[in-house]
């Protein structure tokens, strides 16, 4: 039995639909996300069951339908209504950032180049954090391939045929050999399984933190997990929670793009990038997103 819940949300005039679709179109094999025209379909785990999230865009609104293999819980409609604007970056007050810095000598041209830029979010903080771990110290292309193999080894599929990105419980149930066979290093395999268990046991209450966003507590608790460092945490805070003030000064593309923006003859060091970004708190991660857009033409 498949049950559905739905909702819709209005879109601002400057909404960048293509950014959202590009983020979910990263995997060319489309095992868990499928983009056709202005429609996104994404395989997710909802309350432990396979589900397909479909988001349709037009110029004025986004409409979401969640098809769950099984009966949805009573909270599903409200949860979907909260998820949709968060995934689309609509909770990010980018208009305040743009109004504040549109005349800044370096940020002004970035804003003019990418007006209305918001950061699309993963469907859950666990997806964002596990993706950040997967992508540590490898290229985006290699990370996408590794992510695909994680989805495949987890083995959860919705009735429409899309594979579902695994939740913490599913990852916690994998063993190291499963992930090693999928191409993960021993260190990453151990970190992912450890993370899955901590989240499944509510030692890391990621979904609770969505509402309260205790950034210092999140950072302190995640730093205790072996294999998770500052860059991974700041990226996960951005992609999983929509927190726009992580200092992603260690990111290679951020520093390379900053070198071009500042017209520096030499490479920008992590320390230099950190000091430059510090001036723009609480918008440092949003500025990193603008620098990604310059360096990659898209958001990783």
From TrEMBL:
Reaction(s) catalysed (UniProt annotation): Hydrolysis of alkylated DNA, releasing 3-methyladenine, 3-methylguanine, 7-methylguanine and 7-methyladenine
Annotated HhH-GPD domain residues: 134-299
Pfam family, one: AlkA_N
EC number: 3.2.2.21
CDD domains linked: ENDO3c
Keywords on record: DNA damage, DNA repair, Glycosidase, Hydrolase
GO BP terms in the entry: base-excision repair, AP site formation; DNA alkylation repair
Gene source species: Aromatoleum aromaticum (strain DSM 19018 / LMG 30748 / EbN1)
Entry-linked SUPFAM superfamilies: DNA-glycosylase (SSF48150)
GO CC, one annotated term: protein-DNA complex
Domain DNA-3-methyladenine glycosylase AlkA N-terminal residue range list: 6-124
EC primary class: hydrolase
InterPro entries associated with the record: AlkA_N, AlkA_N_sf, Alkylbase_DNA_Glycosylase/TA, DNA_glycosylase, HhH-GPD_domain
Gene: alkA
GO molecular function, one term: alkylated DNA binding
Entry's transmembrane regions: none
Entry protein name: DNA-3-methyladenine glycosylase II
